[in-house]
Amino acid sequence: MTTEHLTQLGRAVEAPDRPEDAVLERVPNPQNDTLYLARFVAPEFTSVCPVTGQPDFAHLVIDYAPGDWLIESKSLKLYLTSFRNHGAFHEDCTVAIGRKIFDTAQPKWLRIGGYWYPRGGIPIDVFWQSGPAPEGLWLPDQGVPPYRGRG
Q: What are the structural domains, with CATH classification, of the chain?
């Protein structure tokens, strides 16, 4: 597998200040003939409220069935970090992340669960998927309990 096209892996890279400045990269999938699920979990995702500027926190779970490409994980970490000072509502953050990953990796299927901690006393959970899951794909539970302090 060649990685010379990657701009971040194996290099010191500053975290981007905004999602639109982040570069999400992909690598060839050596198992592209196999239907399987890959999962990324970001239990400490942060963004800011676009109205108050106060921090928002979420536990993101991203499941995808790779096709010809895999998401390169360092670039994903930097992309997610770019939301730290980004003002957006929970729904916008969650769906935008799912769509960006889907557009970049072009997987057979993708779903994202955004399990947001309360804002104004109300937890907001946001779910998006690219379409029906492929037949035969093992879909484990995302493992995040309903809000009770998000143990």
A: 20-129 (3.30.1130.10)
